[in-house]
Amino acid sequence: MKGRVTFKTSSGEKAVRFTVNALCDLEEASGLSVDELVQNLQTRPSLGLLRQLFAAGLSGAEERPVPLSEAGEILQEIGLERTGEIVGAAVAGGLGAETSEDPPKKPTAQGG
């Protein structure tokens, strides 16, 4: 599934995926656009922002709202660095930065 990043925790396998609904919920909760959120995370890292992004990604993968407290517990278990890697990979994949061995096909003109 596009943009889905899985990882292991003490309670089993978890996943993060940034669906349109998860990203819209995150924008509404934070008051920032996705671009602003990603830029802020890169230029002014914040534990609270990372937890919000992580919760949104968990919610997208699990197709249920994941409370910030639950996301924070998982974040604490796996660590800041690993969480950042997971969120970064999922955001890149979810926003279309996935690579493919087959380049997109160009439309061809028909008729004529």
What report would you give on this structure?
The longest helix has 16 residues, at 47-62. Strand 1 (5-9) and strand 2 form a beta hairpin. It is globular, with a radius of gyration of 16 Å. It starts with a strand and ends in an 18-residue tail after the last helix. It is 56% helix and 9% strand. It has one domain. The protein has 112 residues and is mainly alpha-helical. The chain is built from five helices and two strands. The model is unreliable at 97-106 (pLDDT under 50). Helix 1 runs antiparallel to helix 3 and helix 3 (47-62) packs across helix 5 (80-94). The protein has helices at 20-30, 34-43, 47-62, 68-78, 80-94; strands spanning 5-9, 12-16.
How many beta-strand runs? 2
Main β-sheet, spatial strand arrangement? 1-2
| pLDDT < 50 stretches | 97-106
Instruction: State the secondary-structure class.
Output: mainly alpha
Write the layout of secondary structure elements.
Blueprint: E1 5-9, E2 12-16, H1 20-30, H2 34-43, H3 47-62, H4 68-78, H5 80-94
Antiparallel strand pairs: 1-2
Helix pairs in contact: 1-3, 3-4, 3-5
